[in-house]
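Researcher: Please translate sequence to C-alpha cells.
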Amino acid sequence: MIIDFHSHICPDKIAAKVAAKMKADEIYSCGPFTLQGLLAHMGRCGIDKIVTFCVAERAQVVRPSNDFIISITDNKIIGLGTIRPDFEDPTGEIKRLKGKGIKGIKFNS
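Model: Translation complete:
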C-alpha cells in the first residue's frame, strides 16, 4: 500500500487563488489543490491513501477549513483538521473534529 502523507487541499472556490499565490511566491506545487486534482494525483502515482489538510492562514478560516476536510474524508482520503493559536476555542474545535472522525490535527502558526 502506498500512502502520500503530506498534501494540501482547499475548496474549489479558492484553489486557483491559492495556487496563483504559491506560484507568485515561487513555492513549488504538484497540483491545483482541488479534490479532483488530488484524486488525479493519486491515480497517476498509484497512491492508495492520502493524508491531506487545509492551511488556515487566519483564525476566521479554521472552522470552514475543517468543515471542508470533514466533508471529503473517506476510506482513501485521510483528512487532518487545522488549528491556529489565535483561534477562539481550540479545545472545542478539537473535540468537534474528533467527534466527526478526524484522526489528527495540523497546527498552523
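Researcher: Any highlights?
Model: The helical segments are 12-24, 35-45, 62-72, 90-99.
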